[in-house]
Each structure stands twice: as structure tokens, then as C-alpha cells.
What does this fold into?
Amino acid sequence: AQVHAAASLNLDLTSLSLAQCDNVSDAALTCLAESAPDLHVLNALGCRDITNSGVRQLAQGCRELTSLCLGWCDISDNALLVVSRQCARLENLDVSGCGRISDAGVTAVVTGCKRLNALCLEGCREVSAWAVASGTAQLRSLNMGGCTLVTDAGVGAIAAAHPQLQALSLRLCRAVGDTRFLSMRCHTLTSLDISRCGPVTDAGVSTVAAACPDLRDIDLEGYAEITDVSLYALAQGCSLLEGLNLWVCSQVSDAGIQTIAAACPNLRSLDVRLCSKVSGVAIMAIAKHCPQMRALYLERSGRITDTAIVALAHNCPHLHTLDLGWCDVSDATLAALAEHCRGLTCLNLGYCDAVTDTGLHMLSRGCRGLASLDIGGCSRLSDASLAFVAEVCPHLQSLDLGGCKLLITDAGLRAVARHCSALRSINLRFCEQVTDAGVQAVQAACVNVQAAGDLGGLAAHHCRARVHRQRHGVRSALRLPVSGSPLSTVSDHGRANVRLPTPGLVDSRSRTAPRLFAGSERCDPAGARSRDAAGGRPTGGANTCPSARRPAS
It folds into this structure.
């Protein structure tokens, strides 16, 4: 009804987002088809009640569509067949997570929509690379993350059919390995994600680096086989690099990061979580050579101390995301961040035991725009800090207090409830002094804190609170203890990455929101980053910065 009213009031409606609107169904698309014939852009991400019938009506009534997101809708090949016939102007299409789509539907789209230049098929497990390669559309952006039928030969066919590709994601395509990249033809690539594929090694990465001089963003997450040799090759061949993901690349060391820092001064995002050979020495090099650094992930890397982070804060004032989980930092780091990085929005201090109330007070006064904060396991913090943070940082959307067993009480939660009405997720696992009263105060004031698994979450594993109720039509619940171990996240990060979304598409990483916040998800206060809905990695929604509650999967 609301969609119909909006369309009726605005006869010139050309763009509409219905993302995550649970109550939107085929009826809404029928209204749009009748009332908004000039609609160009529609985002229906996560509208699970939309089916082939609704898409058919939309395609027949809105033939001017240029961008269409149907991620996680209940559609099949039939919907794509209609779109391919009726929407000749379509340029961007996102059908990620639509498990009933197969090669037949994709072939129809890439053949019928000749203007198509961006296609997201993430999590469509019945789609192979051959379908994409068969079309006449000249794709520039392609995401096939989690498409398990994709092979080296198929990727080769894509490269031959779409040599002008600029962005390619093959994350979690397990049958793709080094051999494909030995004959890569896509020399215009600027973004490549080959995380957690087949046996990618230094030889394959070196080939990519030599063939793709314009590369700006590369994801190599999950390869223990990759060493500094790959970094030397990237430094030599890809000096424009802005984003580098090396999460769990445990053989990478300070020497490789130093080389990258010196050769790639435009570096803005670096992830070296669980890279135990990367220490403060590498961070000093980043501070010296990479003043544009925006996002840095250091959880459980080598020894990182105040010296390195203070230097980073002094020289990288544009930092907005910083993950220091389990790092050996203290109040000196927080003082430096408060003074020099006032634009900081996402900070993980999980299990930084030297951090005290004094440091958190300084940080809060300097970084009032904080939207995501993880102070879980910080044993020297108290309710006083929580109350102060809540008061001076009212824009908080995600707060992780997990593991603060005896320090966080209902009084602190009441302060959060009074000042942080925008809160979407809070982790209270193992906060043993929290009771029903504190939890109910948060639920009453922060209506966007939803059930674990929805747009936000309230996790209270091993708390004294026992609450499960529904309020204002918003599902609010506590996940009660199931076993002796903390609950873990499900579904893809996905990843914070602070990397740029695929041009023209809804970011493919924002598929589903995190259920609970126990893992190494990256930070994204706006809820826009998720990674692998198909692959079972955590999703980055209103989550806190990467937390260190469990080993990386």
C-alpha cells in the first residue's frame, strides 16, 4: 500500500529502494508497473516475497529499467527470461542468492540485454561460467562469488568473451586455481577477488600482477601458501593499488608489507588479520608511505604496540576504520587517535587489556562520530566508560561488550538506551551482571535492535537476562545459552571491507545481516557490507569492527 501511495504521488518516480523491506511482495511490483512506467532503478534486495509473477508485471510495465536488484528474491529462470525480453535498456542486474537461477536464465539475460555491463550472480550455485561467456553483452563488472560450478576453463571463456572486464569476483569458487591466470586476457582489471578459491600460489598472483597494471583492489584472503613473493610482484606491477586483503595469509611478513607500502602510496585499505609475521615494523612503513590509509585490520597479527599506532594516527588522519583486536596497545593509542583521527567511525579494541576508562574517555571526546565500537574483553573498563561513550557518541549503531563479565551492569545499559537510539546491534555475551531490566531498557529505547539474524541483533549468551518478546512490530530477542561455547556467526561478511562496491550494483557483500557478533567480521555501520552469503562466511551488517571472539573460518 505504501509503495502504491508513493508511486501515485510521484508520477515522475525514476528510482526506488525497497531493500530489506520484509513486507514487500508482488503486489508492490504490480503497483509500480501501473504507476511508475519511467522507473529506471529498483532495489528490491532481500524482499523474499517477490516472485516470478511480480517480476513479470514489473518488466512489462517498466521497460525503461536500467538497474535492477532482485537479490534473495524468490525467483527463477522464468523471471530472467521475461526481463531479457522486456528490459532492453538494462545495464546493471543483481540476482545474488537466487538459488533457483541456472545457466538458462543467465544466458537469456546476457544475450537479450545487450547494454548489460554489470552482473552479480553471487551465491547462484546452479550457474556456470559458460552461461556468462555465451552472451553478447560487454560486461565490465562480474561477481560469481560462491558459484561452485565455475572452473578454470570457464573463467578462461569469460576472459575471452569479456576482455574489457574491470571488476571480477570469484570468491569461494573452489575449482578455480592458478592455471587460469597463466593465460589471463583481462588486462584492464582494476578489482579482483580470488579469496578462498582453489590452490592459488605466488606464481598465479605474480602472473596477475604482471598482466594487470591498473589493478587497484585485490583480495587474496585465506591462502597460507602465499608469501612475500606475491607482494613483491604486486609492488612491481601494480603501483596504483588501493586495497589489499591478506587475511589469514600467514606466510606474509614485515618485509613484504614494507615493500608494498613503499611502492603503493595510494594504499587505502589493508587487511593483515591473523598474519602473525606482520608486526609494528610493517605498520611504521604504512604510516610513513601511505598517508591516504582509510581502513586497517590488524587483529591477531604480530606484535603491534602503541609506538606503531601512534605513528599511524599522526600520519594517516583519514582513518575511519581500525581493527586492533588483541593488539598490545594502551591509552596512549587512544589519545593519539582522539587527537589526529577525528573521523574514526569504526574501532575494534577487543581484548586490549591495557585500555582503561581514561583512554576511552579521551577517545570518545575526540571521535564523536563513532558508529561501531568493540570493547569486548577489555577487563579494565567499567560502567562509567560505557555511560560516557553513550553520551558523547550518540550515533553508535553497533556496540560489542562481550566478555566484560563483571564490569558492565544494567546502569551502563540504561545510559546506552537513553543516548543511542540509533543502535542496531549489541553484544552482551558473558556480561554476567546484566539482567532483564537492562536488556529491556535497550529494547524499549532502541527499536532497531532486532532478533539475531535480522537487520541487527542483541546477543546475550551467558547473561542473567532471559527475554524474548515482540515490540512495535520489530522482532527483538535474546539468544539464550545453547552450549558452553559462544555462539558463532553464520552467513557473508561477509567482509567489511572498506572496498568500493561494484560499479552500478548494490554491493554484493550486503546480502544478509549478521546474526550474532562473535567472529572476525569487518565493520560497516551502515550495514552495507557482506561477503559470502553462499559460502557461509559472516555477514557484515550493523556489526562491530572485526572482533576476536573466534578463529577465522
The radius of gyration is 23 Å. Residues 451-456, 467-553 have pLDDT under 50 and may be disordered. The chain is about 30% helix and 10% strand.
